[in-house]
């Protein structure tokens, strides 16, 4: 019986190849099979060796190349055949990346799994936009939520955002009107500042700012498309660039 391969659940980071971990870069460069998401930048896929097999399992809100159960089955099947499989995911594999489901499927089949963390979309986008997710004067709590979760209207989001808190919403472009309505219904002030960060860590990145009540209008008027994150909280109103420049001037 052939020895099973290893499944590597690898975080590709927020887009820029320079933000890959060394471990991720080495695995990509040596992999014979890479199963990747649609959010993985082409420049990262170009790092694969010429004879590597690249399999896209890209997902969108309306269309999945493969259902999640089929992706898990693909990974298990290839590993049981003796192949090492790099499962490449945008951001971090365990932050809204369904890496936990894939690891469970592999463990159930007796397959060795290694998880290689990546810079999460939230961390990458906030850094690129120079937004401090936590700040001693503005926020000591950060929450991550999925904007496309089922039963959005029935969930209690009270306390996730507000004074001293930062809320980061993944996959919230299509449901921006419902998100704004939900947060205000749960008590968040309509003038709470926010930022929409589109294509973070890429040359065409955009950072759009406004109050919570204007979120649907901003998304529609600016034709925001995924990948995009919504960051809500007082930290988005702080001009960290200007503050950093001021600190340098004072130091001089």
TrEMBL record:
Transmembrane segments: none annotated. Its EC number is 2.1.1.107. Gene3D superfamilies: Cobalt-precorrin-4 Transmethylase, Domain 1, Methyltransferase, Cobalt-precorrin-4 Transmethylase, Domain 2. Residues 6-215 form the Tetrapyrrole methylase domain. Pfam families: TP_methylase. One of its GO terms (biological process) is siroheme biosynthetic process. Pathway: Porphyrin-containing compound metabolism; siroheme biosynthesis; precorrin-2 from uroporphyrinogen III: step 1/1. GO terms for molecular function: uroporphyrin-III C-methyltransferase activity. It is an enzyme of class 2 (transferase). Keywords: Methyltransferase, Porphyrin biosynthesis, S-adenosyl-L-methionine, Transferase. PROSITE patterns: SUMT_1 (PS00839), SUMT_2 (PS00840). Belongs to the precorrin methyltransferase family. This is uroporphyrinogen-III C-methyltransferase. It comes from Qipengyuania oceanensis.
């Amino acid at each position: 019986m052939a020895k099973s391969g290893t499944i590597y659940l690898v975080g590709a980071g927020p887009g820029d190849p320079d933000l890959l971990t060394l471990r991720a870069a080495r695995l990509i460069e040596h992999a014979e099979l890479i199963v990747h998401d649609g959010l993985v930048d082409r420049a990262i896929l170009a790092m694969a060796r010429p004879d590597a097999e690249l399999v896209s399992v890209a997902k969108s809100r309306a269309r999945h190349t493969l259902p999640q159960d089929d992706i898990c089955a693909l990974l298990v099947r290839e590993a049981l055949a003796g192949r090492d499989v790099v499962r490449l995911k945008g951001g971090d594999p365990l932050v809204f990346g369904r890496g936990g489901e894939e690891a469970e499927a592999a463990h159930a089949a007796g397959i060795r799994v290694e998880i290689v963390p990546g810079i999460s979309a939230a961390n990458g986008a906030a850094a690129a936009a120079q937004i401090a997710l936590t700040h001693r004067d503005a926020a000591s709590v950060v929450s991550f939520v999925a904007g496309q979760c089922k039963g959005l209207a029935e969930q209690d989001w009270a306390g996730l955002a507000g004074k001293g808190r930062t809320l980061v919403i993944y996959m919230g472009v299509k449901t921006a009107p419902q998100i704004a309505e939900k947060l205000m219904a749960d008590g968040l002030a309509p003038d709470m500042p926010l930022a929409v960060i589109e294509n973070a860590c890429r040359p065409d990145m955009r950072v759009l700012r406004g109050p919570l009540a204007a979120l649907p209008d901003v998304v529609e008027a600016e034709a925001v498309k995924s990948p995009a994150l919504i960051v809500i909280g007082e930290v988005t109103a702080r001009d960290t660039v200007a503050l950093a420049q001021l600190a340098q001037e004072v130091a001089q």
